[in-house]
Design a protein that fits this description.
Elements lengths: L23 E5 L10 E4 L5 E4 L1 H9 L6 H12 L5 H13 L20 E8 L1 H8 L8 H22 L2 H9 L1 H28 L7 E6 L2 E6 L9 H29 L4 H15 L7 H10 L8 H7 L13 H46 L5 H39 L4 H22 L16 H9 L1 H5 L18 E3 L11 E5 L8 E5 L4 E3 L16 E7 L5 E13 L7 E8 L5 E13 L8 E8 L6 E13 L5 H11 L14 H22 L9 E12 L5 E8 L12 E8 L2 E8 L3 E13 L9 E3 L2
Parallel strand pairs: 11-13, 12-14, 13-15, 14-16, 17-21, 18-20
Antiparallel strand pairs: 1-2, 2-3, 4-5, 5-6, 7-8, 8-9, 9-10, 15-18, 16-21, 17-22, 19-20
Helix pairs in contact: 1-2, 1-3, 2-3, 4-7, 5-8, 5-9, 6-7, 7-8, 7-9, 7-13, 8-9, 8-10, 12-13, 17-18
């Protein structure tokens, strides 16, 4: 939008004033916010120019055949005020300065190129094609259709936002790259459908829509629709055109919900969520989107940004009484908009400068992980990864572009304003130097180049705090703990709740100590890391007397690590049975296989009044794409009538030695393959004991069995699964008691516990923890206690 300027342009004496070729009269702006009204014309280059009533009437009357005297008489009749030849000449000079009169086309100012505008536009449909495309969709704006669609849209919003949620949709889309690409394609199509909504609303109101095209908005691809002809419509019809795109987003959301009812593909709800985000974004009055045009039509001021400077000047105490071309209501609304949008734009600019280091670090960190996983993905996975990389790069490019464009525009205007004025030019030089120093201070590495973590909430409160204390963002305080490690690679354990750490569900980190320091246990509750000493989970300790442990740690890309441990433990007399059996498999590498298997057979001879063995299995993948990590702990507790003979012990040991063959699986050591061999050994041991005739059996006794399984899946994220299954605690008596069992699941830790208060002859506990690569989600652990 361009406004007229007072510039003197000399014209050759024409035979009669005439409009320039291609000039189109669009008519008056209905509901204009200007005191004298406003009218619009469009030049041949597509630039729309706003004119006052006198200039528009003269341009309308100019046909190349009338003299200035005849034009003055016609203007007098039209406007009801006296107009002389000299007035016509002055108005003609202003029209010629805009390139609107024949022979003055070279005087036309270049098309305005505001910061927040589309560039590199390409026409997709011509006006005739647009009219054909909109024909089937204009009935959607009939009130009989609009109200049911809006009611259905509200129901869909309630269901998605408050009932169903988008967690399952996100997990399904990211687990299946083909679905993610499908959602992306549908989102792009819905953006084009959004623009079709504006064109259809324009046609429904009686105006003629122009072409639909694509362009670049800062760095993001965007669609646009030429609905300039809608300016001639009444205000209500123009508002319908402004809201037509958002209304079509609601239509897409309702249609998507109907598709979900038919096919039950949760990933479709991501498309609904994206429609809601598009609606919220387009309602913003800050950028030149639907919200901006809605406010423009409500105020009757076509170009709000042209009034930012004059409005700010009139807020100065000594310029408050300066006249305004706007009506009182329009002036008040524009002033409110200026007072709201200017701080927002300045805050976004400052945030772009201060947050650029974090954006760069986050982009680099996430980009490395995504790019590193590409070689292990299929075609659809590669396309999805490339899409994620593009989504990572665009915010950085946009932030840098906005900063550069704003700085260049401000500098150009400041240079023009201070031209020929030494004192202002010196002040400008000092201010420019201070800005350069400030940007260098903000971007000079000093600890701020760290990726954004899940603990960073990113709320408006945080942004306000950062703008109020930029030094804390640019020069972040060092972490309030320290520890020393020997050179080399070290394995650390992290437990991070889904959705990021909070005060109620904090994250915990375990780092091995070094240089005489104890191991560091760190907690993050959303406000930063700090040291802690209490936590319900501990790293595996060395096995004690009567304990069995297998620990497999793999840090070699493509490496294969197996650790298999087994033992036969005999408990005599009244000694308590509190033996621990643990299997731990930790991996931090690429495409590696890590397996830990621990099998413990506890033979209780005689009567024990305390039987509470513990079976543990933990598998952890830390930044471990395309790797498989398995931990299986199998514990069998059996009560015998007497001391086992050497021959029986030898047969049991021979059966357990079959576990050594597990390591021969190598890279083929899948969880199912490992579990099959362990299960075969367990069955052989149970059969040998049954054939021995030494297993205690008496009337009223029972056999208690506890089986717990947990599975964790991961690619590049850090996950942990710890399963604890204490075997049955049994006190032998002469009377039968009762059996109670409980299973609890908390976060990423699953605990199964069985307590039996009656004689038990054998207790079997199997704990399996498996970590395999292939998805970024972590299904909850499952606990079964028969």
């Amino acid at each position: 939008m361009a406004t007229t300027e007072d510039r003197t342009v000399r014209l050759e004496p024409p035979r009669g004033l005439d409009r320039a070729a291609g000039v189109e009269l669009l008519g008056d702006v209905h509901g204009s916010g200007y005191r004298d009204g406003a009218s619009l014309v469009r030049r041949a280059d597509g630039q729309v120019v706003q004119l006052g009533p006198l200039m528009y009437a003269l341009l309308d009357a100019a046909d190349g055949t009338k003299t200035n005297a005849e034009l003055a008489a016609e203007l007098s009749d039209r406007l009801g005020r006296r107009c002389e030849d000299v007035h016509v000449a002055r108005l003609a000079e202003k029209l010629a300065a805009q390139g609107l009169l024949a022979g003055s086309e070279a005087n036309a100012p270049p098309r305005r190129n505001p910061l927040l505008a589309l560039r590199w536009k390409v026409l997709v449909t011509r006006p005739r094609s647009t009219r054909l495309l909109t024909a089937p969709f204009t009935p959607l704006f009939h009130p009989v259709v609009v109200w049911p669609v809006l009611a259905s849209f509200l129901v869909v919003c309630w269901f998605v936002l408050f009932r169903k949620g988008i967690g399952s949709a996100t997990a399904q889309a990211f687990d299946h790259p083909a679905l993610l690409l499908l959602v992306f394609a549908l989102t792009v199509a819905s953006a084009g459908f959004h623009e079709l909504g504006h064109a259809a609303a324009c046609r429904y109101g009686g105006a003629t829509p122009g072409g639909i095209g694509m362009g670049i908005y800062l760095v993001w691809p965007a669609f646009y629709t030429d609905v300039t002809d809608a300016y001639r419509l009444p205000r209500g019809d123009r508002l319908r055109v402004d809201l037509g795109g958002i209304y079509f987003n609601a239509v897409v959301a309702v249609a998507t919900a109907a598709a979900w009812l038919a096919w039950r593909v949760d990933a479709l709800f991501l498309l609904v969520a994206l429609q809601l985000l598009m609606i919220v974004k387009n309602l913003s009055p800050v950028i030149r989107s639907d919200g901006y045009h809605i406010l423009s039509d409500l105020t009757g001021v076509p170009d709000l940004y042209a009034h930012v400077g004059p409005t700010l000047k009139r807020l100065l105490p000594w310029r408050r009484r300066e006249p305004s071309a706007l009506t009182g209501k329009a002036r008040a609304l524009v002033t409110i908009w200026v007072l709201a949008v200017v701080p927002v734009l300045l805050s976004l600019l400052a945030g772009a400068v201060l947050l650029l280091p974090r954006l760069l670090a986050s982009t680099w960190d996430s980009g490395q992980r995504i790019a590193g996983a590409i070689p292990h993905e299929g075609t659809t996975g590669v396309l999805a990864s490339l899409l994620r990389l593009l989504a990572l790069a665009l915010p950085v490019l946009g932030s840098a572009l906005v900063t550069q464009r704003v700085a260049r525009t401000a500098l150009d205007r400041a240079v023009a304003w201070t031209s020929g004025r030494s004192v202002p030019r010196a002040a400008l030089s000092v201010a420019s130097a201070l800005c350069v120093v400030g940007i260098a201070w903000a971007w000079w590495p000093s600890g701020q180049y760290r990726p954004v973590t899940a603990s960073a909430s990113g709320t408006l409160t945080d942004l306000t705090r950062m703008l109020g204390s930029p030094g804390e963002a640019v020069r972040p305080a060092p972490v309030a703990f320290h520890f020393r490690l020997a050179p080399g690679r070290h394995l650390a354990v992290a437990m991070v709740p889904r959705g990021g750490p909070t005060k109620r569900h904090p994250a915990f980190y375990f780092v091995p100590g070094g240089g005489g320091d104890p191991p560091a246990t760190l907690v993050d509750d959303g406000s930063g890391l700090r040291r802690t000493v209490a936590f319900p989970f501990s790293l595996p300790k060395a096995p004690g007397p009567g304990d069995t442990q297998a620990l497999a740690v793999n840090t070699t890309d493509g490496g294969v690590v197996y650790d298999v441990a087994y033992a036969i433990v005999t408990v005599d007399g009244d000694a308590p049975v509190a033996n621990r059996n643990g299997a731990y498999a930790y991996a931090s590498c690429r495409a590696c296989t890590t397996v830990a298997v621990s099998f413990q057979l506890v033979l209780v001879v005689g009567t024990s009044h305390s039987i509470a063995p513990v079976d543990l299995a933990g598998a952890l993948n830390s930044d471990c794409p395309a790797c498989e990590t398995t931990a299986i702990a199998d514990q069998l507790v059996v009560t015998l009538t007497r001391e086992p003979p050497a021959e029986l012990v030898q047969r049991l040991q021979a059966a357990l030695r079959r576990l050594d063959a597990i390591s021969l699986l190598g890279k083929d050591g899948t969880p199912d393959a490992v579990a099959a061999q362990v299960d075969a050994v367990r069955q052989q041991v149970a059969q040998i004991l049954a054939d021995s005739g030494l297993v205690a059996t008496r009337a009223g006794t029972t056999t208690a069995q506890t089986s717990t399984a947990a599975t964790t899946t991961s690619t590049t994220t850090t996950t942990q699964q710890t399963t604890t299954a204490p075997a049955a605690a049994t006190e032998q008596t002469t009377t039968a008691g009762t059996t109670t069992s409980a299973a609890t699941t908390t976060g990423e830790t699953t605990t199964a516990e069985t307590t039996t208060t009656e004689p038990a002859t054998s207790t079997e506990s199997t704990t399996t923890a498996t970590t395999t690569a292939g998805t970024t989600t972590t299904p909850p652990a499952t606990t079964t206690t028969p």
